[in-house]
Every structure is written in C-alpha cells, then in structure tokens.
Amino acid sequence: MRVLIIKTSSMGDVIHTLPAITDAAARLPNVEFDWVVEEAFAEIPRWHSAVKAVIPIAIRRWRTSIISRRHWQELCTQVALIRAHRYDCIIDAQGLIKSAVLTRLAQGQRCGMDYSSCRESLAALVYHQQFQVDSRIHAIERIRRLFALSLNYEAPTNNLNYNTGALRWRGSDDAKPYVVFVHSASRPEKLWPTQQWVKLALKAGNYGYRVRLLWGNESERLRAQEIADQAGRCQVMPRMNLLSIAKLFQQSQAVVGVDTGLSHLAAAVGVPAVTLYFQTSPQLVGTRGQRQYCMSVATQDANAQAISATISADHVWDKLMSIVDGNHEIARK
Which residues are within 8 A (CB) of 233 and not within 5 positions of it... i.e. 6 or more apart? Predict the structure, then answer.
C-alpha cells in the first residue's frame, strides 16, 4: 500500500505527524509513505523509516517573493512529482485550504477531516472520505485517529513513538554536561523574559552545567548573546540545521524551551525537557513524550510579559531536575 501524506508545516505540526506513521507501519506491514512538506522541514520526514519519498514544496517562499518564471518552473516540477503516482490513499493531515489544494492535485482516494473537524472547514469539500475527529484532544492524537480511520485500523491510545531511532549518536562532542535553551519563538507573547533565562543559566552553572543557546535570526542571536554575557558559562551556538540541532539535543542532559517547533523536536528526540506555555494550551498542542513537562499559566491577561514572569527560574529548574535521568550524578548535586 502506498500512501501520500499532505502535511506541509509548521515544524511542530510536522513532528506531530510522526507517531501516526509509526502506528500505521506497525499495523500495515506493507505500507509505504510519501510526504509533501515545506522545504524548510524536509529533513524531518526522512528521519522516519516508513517514509520512502519526500516531496518538498516552497509555498512560504513563493508567497513572500515576486512570482517569477523560476518559481513557476519549481511549482510545475513539484506538481508533477505529486501526480507521478496513483496512491491507495491520500491523507490531508493539515485540514487547510492550501493543503486541500495539494490533496486535490494528487491521484487516489482523498481522505481528511470533516467540515466540523477541519481547521478550515472548506477544505473538507475536496475529500472523498471525511472523518469526524474530536477537536478537544491533543493534535498528535487527532492525527493518529485520522490515520487510523483513513487506513482502517483501530487507533492506539498509548505507545507514542516518533520513530526517531536513527537520530542516535554515541558519546558527546563536549565532555562537560550541558543543557540547551530554546529561548526564541515566532510571536512575542510566547517569550519568557530575558532576565529569567539569565537566572536559569546561573542556576545551571551552579549545578555544574554549561548552557548552549540556539538562535535563528539576528534578534534571537542578540538575545542569546545578552543571556551569555550576563550569566557566563554559556555558549551561543552557530546557526544550525535541524539535524545538527537534533544531535545537540540528543547529547544534552536536558532542554528548556518555549512554545516553538524546536521544543517538539526535543520531545521527538527523547531528551528530558521543560516547555513553557503562555496564553496557549499545552493540553492541545503541548510537547508529548517521555520525560516531557509543560508549564503553563492559566490566565487571559493581555499583558504577555506579566504572564510569562509568573513562572520563575527556580521553579523551572526544580521541575527540570525532577525529570532528568537519575543516572546523571550531576543532577543530584
């Protein structure tokens, strides 16, 4: 059986799809998946052993630049790849109009959520089979149920497995233990105050950890440098691709992050992590997996900085140490 997945973005949503593929591969031994995904996240599907082909697209890049002949050529090439095979099943795991258009271009039985379940209801008009999936459950479980309904097997309720076993490296490039801070997010209301990161870095240093700081643009790099300058024992990492970040996570003792795709990557890799949520619900989109903990603030206050400051560095550190593997002697200092 050959199945096409339409799940283009964002990073967290793409990672959320991996456990559903694991479920399907365990119940349908002959299933193979192709996956249409944004070019920036094309590394992620390749990490799963059941994904045979990845079709990268560039909707984000195309829509933010002038339409050119080169872009049209790229689009035609990608459409040809999408239409190159007739699939036994096409699953739109995104439920948006843009993903429905891509689903409609493919050849085969089109499946997706029904009008009441889709994120954009009109997308449901494209599907041959529409399934109702409870919107009150976590995004990962919604996708797992959609795959089970589309491929006709019973949806599991446990054994969450991202199947990232290929992302395992022996040893560490750094002899000294370290934690990673994912301090940046796409929206200001998702950020934790810089001074809290400084306090957390000082706390980590007191316990013998070094800190690695990630960034993706210039403003994030400046924030990382500010934390490092004030706290010491911190290293601002160079700009890294997703595979390098996954390796950094896997060889770390722990990760602290905010509501962003890299925090979901930490969960998929299986490193102990605490993720901070302000004004979003971890019950619906929080990190899931072994040794993961979501901290959130239950308030509708519009003052994002006031909300985020209510979670203290001491509280975060205490929770992080409670979930770090006890085999790390340094964690019991």
Answer: 201, 204, 205, 209, 210, 211
pTM for the structure as a whole? 0.92
CA distance 134 to 284: 11
Tokens of 120: 């954009």
Q: Please state which of the ranges 55-59, 199-203, 238-242 shows the lowest mean pLDDT.
A: 55-59
CA 192 to chain centre: 19
Q: CA 333, CA 328: separation in Å to the nearest integer?
A: 10
Give the type of residue at 310: T
Backbone torsions φ then ψ of 54, nearest 5 degrees: -115, 130
> To which residue do tokens 């700081």 refer?
213
Q: CB–CB of 90/101 below 8 Å?
A: no
Band (pLDDT 50/70/90 cuts) for residue 325 is low
Cβ atoms within 10 Å, residue 140:
26
Mean pLDDT of 293-301: 76
Does 54 score more than 60 pLDDT? Answer: yes
What is the C-alpha separation between 82 and 90, in angstroms, rounded? 11
Query: What average pLDDT does the segment 289-310 reach?
Result: 75
Give the Cβ contact number of residue 135 at 10 Å. Answer: 13
